[in-house]
Give the backbone structure.
Amino acid sequence: MKLKKFSCLLIFAVFVQSGLAVAQVAKKLIADKQRSIQWKPEKGQYYFSHSMVLNYENKTEKTKGAIKIYLDPISGAMCFRKESSFGQSGEAYDFILAFSDGRFIHCGTDENGKKIRTTEKVTDVKPDAETQNQQKENFETYCSPTGNKRTDAGFESVEYILSYATSENKDKLWLTTVPFNVNPLYGFELIEVAASLPVSLDYLYLLGLNQLISELDSKDLKLKLTGINADPFLALTRNYQEVKMD
């Protein structure tokens, strides 16, 4: 249902918040030495050496806070924890893992208090060539570079002005090219389980694979990347019994 809903609104979303930065050379993000020891997916063990933090202000709902997403810079895998990302919107889940191939592993507790895990696949997290070409065309049509550059979280950011199809309003968008796939973050919007981030980051069809929003200032939302830092976290899925999704 979410995919169909987005398809109907895709053109409008492109007008409002499209973006695809010109390719840049990004520095490397190095995992710590524990990664080679602790990263053991075959044993249900996932080690994340870094986290990225996005401060947000939802102007419509008058809420503000921070979203923390744990990151493995080698595989691009991400970990969303209830305490620091999706909160009570997914109270049944302790954490959700997201991978660049579109897999999402949800680990939590069922209505009987039993620890379970489920897996789903969001195929659009890995867009085909046609989709990527459309993203580029959308960007070139509706986003204009200002020529301003700066450094955010150690990476170069480029400023763009977003134009609207239905008004004269213009928004400011900073995009940062990072050395990992950002789609697992944007794809979180499309997962089937009951968990959501406090603000919509539905940019899966609008941004390039390595384009991270470092700042957005629009009518409804303010978003600011405050850091990508060493911040180890070990997620153990083996403690949860696998259950097939319906």
Q: What stands out?
A: The first strand starts at residue 45 and ends at 58. Confidence is low (pLDDT under 50) at residues 1-26.
